[in-house]
């Protein structure tokens, strides 16, 4: 079933004449509709079609039970853990200068609500705590801050910190996660809100990633990560300003690096002129952090020491992902300075990159063990220990790269903007999806043929 669904999505994604109309329908459904006929939660036919196709391919579930089941399935595939997001968000369309994503009812509720307590923030907090309860130690909880409604988005649009009620909700969530060994990633969203999101996340990093004078060496792992979109021309300067803050104020910078997913709705002038420029920006930040030498930070001639940083490479681009993994491995092998790094791909996308990374990591672990055995001439009662590949892996445990799958849960209407972005990405990656499509087609034929 999963294979057939993947093949179906891949068939649409790799044929423009199928993808463009599907994309238009998704974009149309993203807009708030008063008619029940076009409401993705209320019309059972639209809901059923979307659920069995796009939704199940890219999202975890509409309920806690469905989501838990999906998280377990992903972990059983060999990933270190999951990144789980509650889908509710607000997207700002630069062309129409309008925000959409949160339904009108929520906005009305807020204006009618008492000044002090904002019900949207309260609902978002409860939904996020519910999401946090679905993940376990070692997993990540990802937050879309604009999901907390108009009071928060108004502050963000003005470049301000989130309002006090939201900061208090975030402190409760971060405190709960820290106590359970769950890390938090704050997602990057429409650039219209990004200055406020950056300021708010920086504040959380100051509070939750603090390096105390008694902290052990190396610096404690980041509990909170901010997301940096390499496609924004302003990103290198934002990264530099956050590195200065981490260095001067003594906290670990949690740096999740993405290319950026809002190209269709953001102001194009703020985004790198070409894909090659975005690629260069992404790879130079990633390599610089892994070498602890970026701009004015680190290296022999850096103006500032390189701050404690934990890197998260979030990408489906094989060159960026494998390049970062190999550079990190080389530096570890040669005893050169580097940072802790983890990798993530989205659920339902680029499984070949995720599994390729796991396979390369496993091969490295086995190779290292063989070299160690040769060096030490390890023997036990005359028998060389762990002669088989599996025995070696069992002995050293999972020593390969930390690979996570990132998935989203929520009702169909909450997830529809997210689904639309995934469809846009597939349109932009027609070449990549062609490869995936051919591989899936071959696999489906092989299974059918074997059964016959
Ligand atoms: C685990 C994970 C978490 C993510 N979280 C976020 C998040 O919080 N916020 C967010 O915005 N995105 C997020 N994304 C999506 C991400 O930003 C990218 O849209 C997506 O991963 C595709 O980029 P890529 O690195 O996989 O590589 P590719 O497929 O090689 O690159 C595609 C990307 O290149 C850029 N691009 C394409 N054409 C052009 C052009 N003409 N000019 C300039 N740039 C161009 C766009 O950013 C496009 O998405 C996440 C992705 C992953 C895997």
Automatic annotation (TrEMBL):
InterPro entries in UniProt: FAD-linked_oxidoreductase-like, Proline_DH_dom, Proline_oxidase
GO cellular component term of the entry, any: mitochondrion
Catalytic reactions on record: L-proline + a quinone = (S)-1-pyrroline-5-carboxylate + a quinol + H(+)
Keywords: FAD, Flavoprotein, Oxidoreductase, Proline metabolism
Keyword Isomerase among record annotations: no
MF GO annotations: FAD binding; proline dehydrogenase activity
Protein name as catalogued: Proline dehydrogenase
């Amino acid at each position: 079933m999963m294979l057939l669904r993947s093949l179906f999505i891949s068939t649409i994604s790799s044929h423009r004449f199928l993808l463009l109309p599907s994309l238009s329908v998704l974009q149309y459904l993203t807009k708030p509709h008063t008619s029940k006929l076009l409401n993705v939660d209320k019309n059972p036919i639209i809901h059923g079609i979307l659920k069995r196709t796009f939704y199940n391919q890219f999202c975890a579930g509409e309920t806690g039970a469905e989501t838990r089941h999906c998280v377990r399935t992903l972990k059983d595939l060999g990933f270190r853990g999951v990144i789980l997001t509650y889908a509710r968000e607000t997207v700002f369309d630069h062309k129409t200068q309008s925000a959409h994503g949160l339904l009108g009812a929520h906005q009305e509720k807020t204006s009618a609500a008492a000044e002090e307590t904002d019900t949207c923030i309260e609902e978002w907090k409860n939904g996020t705590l519910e999401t946090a309860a679905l993940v376990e130690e070692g997993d990540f909880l990802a937050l879309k801050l604009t999901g907390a409604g108009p009071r928060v988005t108004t502050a963000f649009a003005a470049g301000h910190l989130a309002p006090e009620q939201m900061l208090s909700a975030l402190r409760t969530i971060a405190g709960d996660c820290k106590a359970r060994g769950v890390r938090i990633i704050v997602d990057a969203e429409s650039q219209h809100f990004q200055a406020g999101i950056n300021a708010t996340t920086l504040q959380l990093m100051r509070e939750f990633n603090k390096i105390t004078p008694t902290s052990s060496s190396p610096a404690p792992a980041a509990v909170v990560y901010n997301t940096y979109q390499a496609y924004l021309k302003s990103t290198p300067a934002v990264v530099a300003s956050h590195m200065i803050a981490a260095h001067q104020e003594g906290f670990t910078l949690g740096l999740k690096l993405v290319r950026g997913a809002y190209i269709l709705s953001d102001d194009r002038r703020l985004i790198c002129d070409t894909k090659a420029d975005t690629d260069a920006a992404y790879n130079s930040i990633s390599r610089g952090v892994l070498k602890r030498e970026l701009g004015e930070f680190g290296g022999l001639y850096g103006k500032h020491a390189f701050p404690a940083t934990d890197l998260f490479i979030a990408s489906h681009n094989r060159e960026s992902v494998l390049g970062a993994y190999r550079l990190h491995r080389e530096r570890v092998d040669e005893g050169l300075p580097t940072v802790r790094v983890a990798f993530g791909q989205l659920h339902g996308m680029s499984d070949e990159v995720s599994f390729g990374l796991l396979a390369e990591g496993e091969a490295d672990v086995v190779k290292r063990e063989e070299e160690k055995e040769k060096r030490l001439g390890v023997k036990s009662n005359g028998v060389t220990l762990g002669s088989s590949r599996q025995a070696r892996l069992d002995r050293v445990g999972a020593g390969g790269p930390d690979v996570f799958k990132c998935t989203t849960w929520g009702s169909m209407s909450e997830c529809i903007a997210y689904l639309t972005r995934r469809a846009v990405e597939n349109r932009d990656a027609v070449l990549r999806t062609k490869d995936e499509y051919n591989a899936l087609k071959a696999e489906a034929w092989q299974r059918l043929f074997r059964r016959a």
